[in-house]
Amino acid sequence: NTSTFTMAESVETVFTPLNIALGGIVGYMLYTLLAPKKASNASRKRPVDSEPPRSFTLEELKSYNGTKAMESHNGEKPIYMGVNGIVFDVTDGADFYGPGGPYEAFAGRDASRGLATMQTGLVCRNCRHMLPLNSSRKQ
User: Fold this and answer.
1) For residues 64 and 109, is the Cβ–Cβ distance under 8 A?
2) CB neighbour list of residue 67: distance below 8 Å, 6 or more residues apart
3) pLDDT digits (tens, 9 = 90+) for 29-86
4) Residue 80's beta-bridge partner residues?
5) What is the secondary structure of 31-85 as a DSSP string?
6) What is the pLDDT of residue 135?
7) What is the pLDDT of the chain when averaged over all its residues?
8) Model pTM?
9) CA angle 103, 107, 111 (to 5 degrees)
10) What are the φ and ψ backbone dihedral angles of 113, each rounded to 5 degrees?
11) Which stretches does DSSP call E strand in 69-125?
12) Average pLDDT over residues 6-28
């Protein structure tokens, strides 16, 4: 006795509810891995590098502490922070660096010393008078 499968019987054995569910899961996983990624609005409010690089004096940097709306920034209240001679735009972290935030002392200032020593009270208000960190504090 040889059994012969008809086309209908072989389709029934392949397309079981379990196989259909597993195929759907595998298809969804492949789609999420291979589909192009969309930029989320929450991750970036402004375009990156919206301004050309520029230099700041300590006096100019004070204006970028998150308290003043600026026409040059579409009415935003930009927050910049200087670290070791480089100015960073930390506006997206306004909850941390803006007014009332735990690191507001760094906003609009040279924060090199405060960040190096992990103390918010050591921001540089007049950097010319400060001595370099000793070797134990640099580590």
Assistant:
1) no
2) 77, 99
3) 998 888 877 655 455 555 555 566 678 888 888 889 998 888 877 888 999 998 888 8
4) 89
5) HHHHSPPPPPTTT-SS-TT-S------HHHHTT-BSSS--GGGTT---BEEEETT
6) 54
7) 76
8) 0.53
9) 80
10) -70, -45
11) 80-83, 86-89
12) 81
Work out the average pLDDT over 92-108: 88
- Residue 81 buriedness (CB in 10 A; 0-12 / 13-18 / 19+): buried
C-beta of residue 79 within 8 angstroms of C-beta of residue 65: yes
118 token code pair: 């992990």
Distance from C-alpha of 51 to C-alpha of 93, rounded to nearest angstrom:
18
Beta bridge partners of 88: 81
CA distance 114 to 123: 5
Local structure of residue 126 (DSSP, 8 states)? S
**CB atoms closer than 10 angstroms to residue 133:** 13
